[in-house]
Amino acid sequence: MLGSGFLHISGKKRIFVQPLFEEAQNNFTYEFWVKPEVSQKMDIESLDQSIDPLGLCFVIGAECNSINKACLAISVGNNGVSVYECSEYYLTALLVYPISIKNWIHIAVVYTNKTPHLFINGKFIKSGLTSRKTRVYASGTFGGLYSSGFFTGSLDDLRIWAHARTEEQIRTNMRRELDGCEIGLICYWNFNHSNQISVRDGSPNSNHGLIVNQLVSLPEGWDEVAWSGNTPSFIYDNMDILERFFISQKPAQSNSNYTTPSLDKNHKNKQALVKSTTHHTDVLLLFGHYRKDYELFLYPVANRLVNNGISVTILIHKAAVEQTSKLDPRINIVVADNLFTYFNIYDKAKNFYQEVLLAFMEKWLSLQNLDPKEEKEIKDFYYTYAIDRIGTLALLNLIKPKLVYGIHFILNPGCLDAIKFMRQLIPIKIFLIQHGFFYECHDFKGADVAILWGSFHERILRELSAIPSVVIGNPKMEFITNSHTIGHKQNDSHKSKRVNILYISSPYANSKKNIKLFLKTMRNFPKLKVKYKLHPTESKKDYIPYIKKGLMKSKQIAKKKNIYKLISESDIIVGGFSTSLYEAALLKKPIIQILPPQGNNQVPLLNSFSSSKKLKYIIKNLCSNEAFYQAMINSQQKQLEPLFNSTHGSISKIANYIQDAL
Known about the structure:
Radius of gyration: 29 Å
Structural class: alpha/beta
Helix content: 25-40%
Strand content: 25-35%
Distance between the termini: 36 Å
Number of strands: 30
Largest sheet: 8 strands, mixed
């Protein structure tokens, strides 16, 4: 046993990462400290006899549905250690070793050319039978084999390597905690911050484990759809989203008196579900629609919450999980890919879409006057809806949070509908944080409270919606202004000439006019260095016409580079209407707005210009006149107060507000 903690498993639970680690085949190593509490049956070593998993205690489980390949499984009881090979309809014992285990011991199983070798407390014990399979893989499931063979006992410092370790390597390092960056290390669980929801991987591979109670499933009634007249509830409830993104004209509607799907007293599982509604986490962080720049709205607040003793869980996709190194190790990380695989979400969603949603949609669509493109977009939207709804239901039923803190569900209404369904079983609050400027419409649908940056936004929201709101501040901008990693470039007073300009694009109505006006003006400043930061919805292809005309170069376009790094490297920031422009102003950079939206008091304007002549004048003075440069910055700061309140202390204030609501 190493470090400050370990994981105790009481049976009926599994830890799931993925079925197989395909990067580890035929030659790999498992190491772990273990203290079993029950005995296991001792089978006979054989390549031909298929074993019943009942009576076994799998520390390392298996999930392989192939005939030609197999994966390893390791069972440990207080009377012995066994190594099994598992494939479709096949489980056989390759190595069995009886030993009395009364305390913690270190076990290593080394596979060399498909042959298992057992080491106990750093000493070689014996070799097993050689597999006949073409490939043998390291398993990515732990604690049980399918629905049986559960391990009972304690586990610590589990390591998986993509190569065969030597006896000396095992003995030398078995009592030493790893850095996590060792060559060949696939997975490293030290359990120093163990909990009952997830296991954090200490390697750079982010193989975080999901702890799943075998009895957990989707709640009964999850696939029911209410219907009123000609409109199913999943369409009626999200009509505002359909009209915002997909439908060009007002759709035909039936009356609005429909019944929300519910778990009434006749549902046989309701009583059992209500009895098991113990909350397993205080706060669940949900992005809704993930974007990298959204992370700083959630992560700093999550870190502060766990420091306050609040339990926090975050759902994130594998593609974005590398950034979770910013999170406190006490935070539970649920990797959506693992969750979806374990609960077979994609197949369930496909069936739900085809057998339930599509039938209702076809009936409703037949009454509308939509073009084929709109119909296809709506169907695609609801296929994603099905995935989000079922995946979120599985997560909520697994961890049962008291409060959801997130960004928005405008692009993921299935998540919101899942929360609404689960609220019939357990109380769940929804707090959504403002992620950008808004006007004409907002993204706080479903929120019990909208957390806003400043009083300006509160006024706008009151004009648009009755959603309760609270003005606290902007946690992202507090983190950025306090960060030492961005390398803020100071506005040196001795600097007489400024040459770096950043153009920030945005997908709004005047975006093409904006860029054309800017490019026309920049012909007067051939020595200035310009970079173009694209909006997440844009690509370099959108700028090919300008590149072909020689108005800009491809190397000037920044798609993936951190925008705050770009801002810190720039002297002047230019754009149309983008939240990043105001953030740049907050970071004490002079900003220029070109052709911003007009005639709408919901759009705050700082330094706006609509002609090449004026734009030329302002750029020239900003580049050469220090007093002019500083005066513009000072003027901007006075206008920012109602937009950003005070960013200082925003993280703590939001965390405290959430904590008080629990």
